[in-house]
Amino acid sequence: MNPEKMMKDIFEKTVTDEVIGRIDNLDSTKAPLWGSMNASQMLAHCSVTYELVYDNKHPKPKGVKKLLLKWFVKGIVTNEKPYKKGSPTAPEFKIVDKKEFGTEKQRLVNYLTKTQELGKAHFDGKESHSFGKLTATEWNNMFYKHLDHHLTQFGV
Lower Cβ count inside 10 Å, N or C end of the chain? Predict the structure, then answer.
């Protein structure tokens, strides 16, 4: 892969700080450029990725669903190719209820900070909720690409 095209490394403090800066530039009244979530729902949606890592609030997929996720979804989620606008969303990630902007913003920033502080070595070979063991690069791509997609969705 061309080094200029490589995804930013969310485990680097400067990159995490840049993403947090983008989150800080978001306000609750900002309308999305595409999609149906408002800014508060988007922040809650982005936190689901971290809930799957840190919180035991989502049941793990089993059987055929787990195999399908590993075979068909893992590569899409962990590669460096950006998501397309309007890509399908897994049920666990759909946020339809009202969320409080400040609470969701702080929650996501806390998850980002924790992830950066734990660092790349912590995640290398770590089992994911849905995809089995991932490399640090796969974790990074999953984390960064999702955040970048949705922050871009809101023009920040």
Answer: N
Characterize the bridge pairing of strands 127-128 and 132-133.
Answer: antiparallel
State residue 122's pLDDT score. 98
The full 3-state SS of the chain, as one line of letters, equals CCHHHCCCCCCCHHHHHHHHHHHHCCCCCCCCCCCCCCHHHHHHHHHHHHHHHHCCCCCCCCHHHHHHHHHHHHHHHHCCCCCCCCCCCCHHHCCCCCCCHHHHHHHHHHHHHHHHHHHHHHHCCCEECCCEECCHHHHHHHHHHHHHHHHHHCCC
Boundaries of domain holding 139? 7-153
Structural domains in the chain (count): 1
> According to the model, what pLDDT value does residue 109 have?
98
Residue 100 lies in a domain: yes
Q: Please report whether residue 2 resides in a domain.
A: no
Name 88's bridge partners.
none
